[in-house]
Design goal:
The chain has ten helices and no strands. The chain is mainly alpha-helical.
Length: 234
């Protein structure tokens, strides 16, 4: 290489590195392109150009530069690593865009509405299963509701239920008689459904709210990383 050309190349590379330190990625890109125009493409300068493009938020162009750098300088590990990480980053950004588009086209299709634990517990106190239905757990809510109603119905129609009520109230007319186990069993099941429904509704509502908060936080962090300017993947 001619001495004059080499000196100019070194000057431009120095300008590119200074611009990188100043985070002036536009100036860094210009210096890199000037080097390429002067001496042609090589693995080092094309990778440096990819860094400049990445710093400006031009992810797809940076990816192509890293790929070309790895091809020009076979075994250039730094360019290969940057290329692989940027491919994953762009794929994640594309999935996020598609998810946002789907949400705009079909609001609420893939997300459950957030519910407060207090609201779910109040509904479950009113009637077992209602809290689960509001939380979107339709099968569980239907089962709890159905079992509770069935138990109440059986207790109401069983003749032994009156005897159980007299014994529980301490009436002398029920003294000396055996414990009517059938209505007692259904009463126990009904109480279990009632208590379980309240606890489960509160727990699931709290989990749903926490998951929604984490999803929003992660989405915001992903957008900030993909849209903001910064250092190239390393």
């Amino acid at each position: 290489m001619d001495v004059t050309i080499r000196a100019e190349r070194d000057r431009l590379l120095s300008d590119a590195n200074v611009a990188r330190l100043r985070r002036d990625f536009a100036a860094m890109e210009k210096a890199c392109r000037d080097v390429i125009a002067l001496t042609g493409e090589d693995g080092e300068i094309v990778e440096l150009l990819g860094d400049a493009l990445y710093g400006q938020g031009k992810g797809a162009d940076a990816r192509d530069c890293y790929q070309k750098s790895a091809e020009l300088a076979s075994g250039r590990a730094s360019a290969e690593v940057k290329y692989a990480r940027l491919v994953l980053e762009l794929a994640e950004a594309e999935r996020e865009i598609q998810a946002n588009l789907t949400e705009l086209e079909h609001p609420g299709a893939h997300t459950r509405p957030s519910h407060h634990a207090a609201g779910s517990s109040i509904l479950s106190i009113l009637f077992p299963g209602l809290g689960q239905l509001v939380n979107g757990e339709y099968i569980k809510g239907g089962i709890l509701l159905g079992v509770f109603v069935l138990c109440l119905t059986l207790i109401a129609v069983l003749p032994d239920s009156r005897q159980l009520a007299r014994q529980l109230s301490g009436s002398s007319s029920g003294a000396g008689q055996g414990i009517p186990w059938t209505p007692l069993l259904f009463a126990t099941i009904a109480i279990f459904c009632y208590v379980y429904s309240i606890i489960d509704a509160v727990t699931e509502a709290a989990k749903s709210s926490a998951s929604g908060s984490q999803a929003k936080s992660g989405s915001g962090a992903g957008k900030a990383g993909s849209e903001g300017k910064g250092s190239p993947p390393s």
